[in-house]
């Protein structure tokens, strides 16, 4: 019941950084240094809802160009990029139970809630498999209060590789740095990396030594277990073999890693690591959970003293706190775009082959029925999506339709994502991708 | 009865004379490789039995077999279909000449062998090993007399490794950091040490850290859930219906291994430091007020206060990390302890040395604490911590090539048959002292464990979950409007929580029936008892018709109006009395002191009357549920095993009552909402799935896979009943399979898709009729008026009990039965039957059977015909 495909699917399911097939380094790092055109998608999920008034230019009530519009204060950092921006209002997620948070349902397009395990793969995971392969097809990072990120450095609330198979996001930048760049690090991180590498190698050796007396079919299954360690250890070796390449992209470790003053220090360096995984070509899909999919979160580094649940009880429009958070998000989006624009790829830059999906894991506000689920797209993924415009939909197509569009753009031929025809009759008045957003 | 009684001796005779008959060309041994070429063997079968109808011209079902040819990748799907049809005796049709039973078996085995060979490096062929196709083995051959020419091989099971399930794994890890309460015979239903770690309020399986020490927290239940450290199950499963855990289903992938390593570090730190590993020192105090939570810190780990009382297990890992420096003795003790805690057996000297060396090396690189944590984490990834081996590396094969498991392998197999935690002291002692080597040894331990309620046996309950599939209800996503139409609450997560509660309630009901151990299956199917929560008054209620609902609303209004009027009058009277007294005292102030008490009493009377009036007014405004006539469930207090320790005040509550279901409306757990909703979908009942369940799990029938050409959709016609919409399955192409399922599922239309009883659907009397067709037991066949009549009939059937035994065999032996297992199945059935429907007797028989005790390394004789 296991085969190579299952194995690969299984390997990609789990730790936020999932391991793909062993690729030779020059294939792996093709993106920045060769002519091969790759694609990548970034999901930025801010918790507590995304009020449309904080992104739709004043006076715009119907679809149209953003060229002459002025972006609202919370997202004004995107003003120079509005030719690449597509604001979408009027998708829905009523079937996802998004009040407080749809959790896995936000990216899965199915019912989610606190404590409810994922009932299927999420769109980020599916895209990571559909896009041209990278060493770590999928990387998830999560931003939260410093206490939560320290106590629970990995957490799974947003992404999944299948039913009951959550994917963990990384929140401790030291751990993530060690995983990605331990081989080129120095000092404590290097020591930790080497010790861990040594233990993992010995685990592989011990596991391999216990494969005797197995039947042919059991041996196949057990070999996959042993191969798992080979993948982990092989990944390290492959990263080491392209260390010169990685050095160009790896962020510099500073005191924000080891001694953060505010949680936003870690948010910033986690983003640096996420960006570096994209620019170095290690990953093709990055999921950022700001607030980690839950109903809390803190941004004290922005001068916001209030934290947690109360942030969600506030109206977002014209609220100084939410203006700060959304501006912070927007600056992060700009950092992502600037970084990707700085890397040549094909006849242009990485950003030309990239799409950023910015939204919330609980639709438009904290207590919501999901009747409106605003989304911003940045970039066009090789010309697949329209840009520079605002699209007002009629609330009759679910977020699943957007996800179908993403998979279509990634070359998958499907009409629906995670939605049965029975449910679609109730929640979707069309089939296929969202034609309003496709170029 | 006599038919079955004679079957066992016949089978044994066949074995005894095996050596003399094996040379005869016409004898057939199930599972034996059929060395024959297509042209010499299979072609003739097809030409004799198939090609007349499935020939070159105008073939039946548009399927031509005249030029099918040898099994190849390109025609594998066709051969797969041929195998299913022939194996299930669907083909040749009943009105055609039938092949001899041995010819049919040999032909089926040949196809399996050829498909396995051809598809070996193309994903393989495993249909015959899939539990959902276990019924493809002819029931009458398993329990009836064997025809001439069949020679059974002695039962045994291929040597194998068996990956632990997510629930076993979490329960195993939980043992390291949480001390669960001891069994309390006064409250036997409460979750206790040895029970499985249950899923939480949302159905998620998680390992929680330190919840047994939390004495204060800020915020509500969601804040609590966020602030508490927890990790979800890491190991994955792909199945959620039926038997989910055959040994050959799963492995551990690299992502899981990496995450296990990470979780291991968290666990080891908690073993060493307790809550200090996840909290600040000032949060650990017995005076919760001494820890000041400033501002709104809900959802943060700092919003928790832990008591100072150490409740986690204190182990050699603690000793190692607590003590200054590192001694070899402490280090080895920690390694050996952890190894046994995770693999359930002590390490060999070589294993112990290997892990001691790893830990030492890590300590030399990272220092004591970080090094010990990293090095010890390696043990969490040992093969035997994630897979349970049954490899019979020790022991001599008997003349049939079978080796009996012994010592730790046998002891752990017995332990695993019942439990998720380490062997208890007595079993461990028996293993260590060499008293786990014989069938009698196994019988002794099994009977001892089965007799002792304090030895929790969650795997038995797991079997019933797998068999009945009643534990899916909370995971069935409901459309909000469709749910509201059923009459139950669709507010927030109320329905889903009610369903997870219902699963725990059904668990408990099954435990009660197992405790009685009398006619277990029949009782499960026909009990009039229910373990209930308050919400079950609605779920076990009756959906009102529109007219009844209107009348109920009007009646409620009248009652409220009357109560309000009475309360108003009482309030006015009280006010008047008070006013009169006050006026009197105004005029006669000298009386004030004397009548002080009377004045106070009249004021109180006004307050009380005002409260009653307010309550009556509030009721007037309340939005009571008039859609359902609630059941009146009452009975003794009882408890269910729920995740009470994981979710603060929002935990699922264990409190239940043991009540009687409304007569004439319910019968047995198939009529309980937990089962009904588990077999429903977002919008409606799922009559096909229900019918399939009855066909497979009770009648022992097999359903071939849905042909890929079938677009399995019912028309979307909201104004028609499910039965009416299912007309498409009655069309000729679909009916071949659907007549086996639909008429068995439609009698459950007496319930709506939330499991509420109904007599009317879409304004008309609901049609609850159905029919049992071709069950294999003629006394069962015939029309039924509703689910209750059908269940009553089925519950009397001996065949149904045999099918139940077949499923128990699959669960505990971990593979599909073959004809070679006929003696084991018959003996297990008789053990069950002769002991008054005793699950304990059935289990003892299965766990002392050759199929359980013996392993073959070659897989030559049984099951693994590939």
TrEMBL record, chain A:
This is DUF1552 domain-containing protein. InterPro entries: DUF1552, TAT_signal. Pfam families: HXXSHH. It comes from the Bacteria.
């Amino acid at each position: 019941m296991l085969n190579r495909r299952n194995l690969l699917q299984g390997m990609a399911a789990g730790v936020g950084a999932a391991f793909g097939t062993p690729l030779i380094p020059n294939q792996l790092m093709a993106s920045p240094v060769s002519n091969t055109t790759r694609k990548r998608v970034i999901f930025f999920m801010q918790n507590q809802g995304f009020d449309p008034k904080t992104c739709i230019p004043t006076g715009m009530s119907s679809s149209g160009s953003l060229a002459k519009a002025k972006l609202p204060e919370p997202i004004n950092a995107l003003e120079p990029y509005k030719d690449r921006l597509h604001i979408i209002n009027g998708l829905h997620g009523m079937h996802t139970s998004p009040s407080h948070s749809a959790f896995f349902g936000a990216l899965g397009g199915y019912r989610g809630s606190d404590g409810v395990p994922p009932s299927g793969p999420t769109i980020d995971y599916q895209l990571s498999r559909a896009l041209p392969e990278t060493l770590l097809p999928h990387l998830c990072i999560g931003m939260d209060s410093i206490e939560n990120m320290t106590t629970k450095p990995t957490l799974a609330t947003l992404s999944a590789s299948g039913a009951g198979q959550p994917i963990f996001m990384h929140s401790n930048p030291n751990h993530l740095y060690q995983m990605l760049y331990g081989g080129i690090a120095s000092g404590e991180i290097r020591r930790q990396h080497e010790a861990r590498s040594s233990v993992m190698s010995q685990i592989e050796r011990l596991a391999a030594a216990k494969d005797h007396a197995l039947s042919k079919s059991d041996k196949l299954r057990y070999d996959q277990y042993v191969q798992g360690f080979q993948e982990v250890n092989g990944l390290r070796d492959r990263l080491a073999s392209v260390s010169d390449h990685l050095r160009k992209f790896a962020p510099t470790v500073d005191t924000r890693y080891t001694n953060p003053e505010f949680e936003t220090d870690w948010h910033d360096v986690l983003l640096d690591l996420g960006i570096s995984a994209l620019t170095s070509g290690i990953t093709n899909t990055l999921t950022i959970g700001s607030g980690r999919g839950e109903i809390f979160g803190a941004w004290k580094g922005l001068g916001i003293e209030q934290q947690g649940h109360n942030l969600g009880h506030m109206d977002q429009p014209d609220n100084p706190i939410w203006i700060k958070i959304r501006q912070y998000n927007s600056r992060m989006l700009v950092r992502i775009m600037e970084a990707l624009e700085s890397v040549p790829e094909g006849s242009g830059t990485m950003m030309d082959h990239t799409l950023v999906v910015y939204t919330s894991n609980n639709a438009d506000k904290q207590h919501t029925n999901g009747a409106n689920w605003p989304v911003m797209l940045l970039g066009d993924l090789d010309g697949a999506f329209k840009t520079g415009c605002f699209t007002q939909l009629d609330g009759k197509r679910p977020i699943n339709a957007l996800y179908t569009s993403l998979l279509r753009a990634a070359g998958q031929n499907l009409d629906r994502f995670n939605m049965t025809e029975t449910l679609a009759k109730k929640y979707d008045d069309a089939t296929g991708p969202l034609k309003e957003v496709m170029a | 009865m006599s038919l079955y009684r004679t079957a066992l001796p016949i089978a044994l005779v066949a074995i005894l004379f095996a050596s003399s008959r094996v040379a005869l060309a016409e004898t057939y041994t199930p599972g034996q490789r059929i060395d024959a070429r297509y042209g010499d063997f299979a072609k003739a079968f097809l030409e004799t039995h198939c090609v007349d109808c499935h020939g070159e011209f105008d073939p039946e079902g548009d399927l031509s077999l005249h030029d099918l040819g040898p099994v190849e990748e390109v025609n594998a799907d066709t051969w797969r279909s041929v195998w299913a049809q022939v194996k299930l005796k669907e083909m040749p049709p009943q009105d055609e000449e039938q092949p001899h039973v041995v010819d049919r078996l040999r032909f089926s085995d040949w196809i399996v062998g050829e498909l396995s060979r051809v598809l070996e490096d193309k994903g393989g062929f495993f249909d015959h090993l899939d539990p959902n196709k276990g019924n493809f083995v002819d029931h009458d051959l398993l329990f009836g007399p064997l025809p001439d020419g069949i020679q059974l091989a002695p039962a045994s099971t291929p040597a194998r490794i068996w990956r632990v399930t997510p629930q076993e794994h979490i329960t195993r890890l939980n043992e390291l950091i949480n001390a669960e309460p001891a069994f309390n015979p006064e409250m036997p239903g409460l979750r206790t040490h040895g029970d499985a770690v249950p899923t939480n309020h949302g159905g998620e399986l998680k390992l929680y850290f330190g919840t047994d020490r939390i004495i204060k927290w800020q915020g509500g239940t969601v804040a609590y859930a966020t602030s508490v450290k927890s990790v979800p199950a890491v190991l994955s499963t792909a199945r959620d219906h039926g038997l989910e855990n055959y040994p050959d289903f799963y492995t551990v992938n690299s992502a899981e291994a990496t995450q296990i390593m990470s979780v291991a570090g968290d666990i080891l730190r908690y073993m060493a430091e307790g809550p200090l590993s996840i909290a600040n020192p000032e949060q650990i105090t017995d005076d919760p007020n001494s820890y000041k939570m400033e501002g709104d810190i809900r959802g943060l780990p700092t919003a928790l206060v832990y008591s100072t009382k150490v409740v986690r297990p204190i182990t050699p890992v603690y000793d190692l990390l607590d003590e200054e420096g590192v001694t070899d003795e402490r280090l080895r003790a920690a390694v050996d302890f952890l190894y046994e805690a995770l693999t359930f057996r002590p390490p060999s000297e070589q294993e112990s040395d290997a892990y001691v060396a790893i830990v030492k090396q890590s300590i030399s690189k990272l220092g004591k604490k970080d090094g010990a944590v990293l090095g010890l984490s390696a043990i969490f990834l040992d093969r035997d911590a994630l897979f349970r081996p049954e490899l019979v590396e020790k022991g001599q094969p008997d003349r049939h090539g079978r080796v009996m498991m012994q010592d730790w392998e046998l002891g752990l197999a017995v332990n695993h048959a019942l439990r998720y935690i380490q062997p208890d002291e007595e079993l461990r002692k028996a293993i260590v002292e060499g008293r786990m080597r014989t069938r009698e040894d196994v019988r002794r331990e099994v009977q001892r464990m089965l007799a002792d309620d304090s030895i929790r046996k969650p795997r038995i309950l797991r079997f019933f979950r797998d068999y009945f599939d009643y534990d899916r209800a909370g995971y069935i996503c409901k459309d909000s409007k469709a749910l509201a139409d059923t009459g139950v609450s669709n507010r927030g997560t109320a329905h889903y929580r009610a369903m997870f509660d219902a699963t725990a309630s059904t668990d408990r009901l099954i435990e009660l029936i197992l405790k009685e151990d009398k006619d277990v299956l029949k009782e499960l199917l026909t009990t009039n008892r229910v373990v209930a929560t308050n919400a079950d008054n609605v779920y076990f209620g009756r959906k009102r018709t529109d007219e009844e609902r209107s009348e109920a609303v009007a009646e409620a209004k009248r009652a409220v109006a009357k109560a309000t009027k009475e309360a108003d009058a009482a309030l006015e009277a009280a006010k008047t009395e008070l006013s009169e007294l006050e006026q009197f005292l105004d005029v006669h102030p000298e009386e004030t002191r004397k009548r002080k008490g009377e004045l106070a009493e009249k004021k109180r009377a006004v307050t009380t009357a005002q409260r009653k009036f307010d309550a009556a007014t509030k009721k007037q405004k309340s939005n009571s549920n008039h859609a359902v006539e609630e059941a009146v469930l009452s009975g003794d207090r009882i408890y269910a095993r729920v995740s009470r320790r994981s979710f603060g005040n929002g935990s699922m509550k264990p409190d239940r009552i043991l009540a009687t279901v409304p007569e004439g409306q319910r019968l047995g757990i198939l009529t309980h909402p937990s089962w009904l909703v588990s077999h429903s979908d977002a919008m409606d009942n799922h009559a096909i799935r229900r019918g399939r369940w009855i066909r497979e799990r009770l009648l022992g029938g097999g359903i071939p896979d849905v042909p890929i050409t079938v677009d399995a959709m019912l028309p979307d016609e909201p104004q028609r009943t499910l039965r009416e919409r299912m007309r498409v399955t009655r069309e000729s192409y679909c009916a071949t399979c659907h007549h086996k399922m639909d008429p068995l599922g439609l009698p459950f239309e007496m319930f709506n898709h939330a499991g509420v009883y109904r007599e009317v659907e879409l304004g008309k009397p609901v049609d609850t009729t159905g029919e049992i067709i071709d069950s294999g037991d003629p006394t069962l066949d015939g029309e039924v008026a509703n689910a209750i009549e059908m269940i009553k009939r089925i519950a009397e059937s001996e065949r149904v009990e045999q099918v139940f035994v077949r499923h128990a065999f699959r669960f505990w032996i971990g593979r599909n039965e073959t004809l070679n297992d006929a003696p084991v199945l018959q003996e297990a059935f008789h053990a069950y039957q002769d002991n008054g429907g005793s699950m304990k007797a059935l289990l003892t028989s299965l766990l002392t059977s050759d199929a359980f005790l013996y392993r073959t390394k070659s897989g030559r004789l049984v099951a693994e015909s590939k």
